[in-house]
Amino acid sequence: MPSFASEIRRQLAARTAQPRGAGPTAELAGLVDAAGSVDEGGITVRTASAAVARSLVRLWRSEFGLEPRLSPPEAKSGAFGRRRHAVRVEGNRAVQAAEELRAERERATRSATRSAAREGAGSAGIAYLRGAFQGAGSVTGPAYRRGHHLEFVHGSEEFVRRVAALSPAPLRVTRRRGRWVAYTKSAEGVTTILARMGLDEAVLEYEARAVVGEAKANANRVTNFDAANAGRTAVAAARQQEALEGLDPAKLPPALREMLELRLENPDASLAELARLGGLSKSAANHRLRRLVGLSVGKSVSAPVPETTARKPTLSKD
Length: 318
Known about the structure:
Layout: H1 4-15, H2 24-35, E1 36-38, E2 42-47, H3 50-64, E3 69-71, E4 85-90, H4 92-114, H5 123-136, E5 137-139, E6 150-154, H6 157-166, E7 172-176, E8 179-184, H7 187-196, H8 200-244, H9 254-265, H10 271-278, H11 282-296
Antiparallel strand pairs: 1-2, 2-4, 3-4, 5-6, 6-8, 7-8
Helix pairs in contact: 1-3, 1-5, 2-3, 2-4, 2-5, 4-5, 7-8, 9-11, 10-11
């Protein structure tokens, strides 16, 4: 099953099959900057996504009239051993296209710089961001156990800082294992970026899966809490049972004798259950149990009997 990030790249690539609005050239500029290399003879872009490779072919044809060469997947390489497609354009027109893409990148960057609000970065800047994500972006699924995370990873600090400037949500920039990273760990940041890139369906899916994931996490916390409480109750009851079995009921006052019989007959019962069976308040039941335990060790007063008084886990309201 493809990862959530792979599905996002596929959806972004599919948008180029039905171009709408401005920005396909800026999108191609972002892709080339993120995953391409320019040499004297042309431009080569490598990607592990077949959908992105097909998108590149369409963009080269529609924007520059070039007929790219799509090579078969290369041998597995990189940190995750992925097979990569290589899309290459060559010739004087390709070299000229490289210059035009640089100019398009500068226009996208200037539009973001002029904008006072991030959400006003403009269609060219958002289109560049779409291309950059297809080439260097990743996002974890909403149910990921370590939380929300969207990032752009690249060897060039200039590229990563440009992406951070164009992003409609704040991105932190750092250096990690020799590469530069711009990232957000907030759910709002992730959904804002996906929405501005035109992925409304992905945002709805992300939010729905996040709700389900949070509900499961809350259920697990409650289950773990209940299991821990059951363990504490069993330990407390076992200690009481051992201490109380040596008492002689005939030598006890009626109230203590009744409590002793209740505890011995219900060794696994909690304090609340014992109180209910005896028609008492929890405070009265606990007081009598303390006196019984104290008598069993030759004292008139004992420390409180361990009971399940742990605080309930706090459930997320988000």
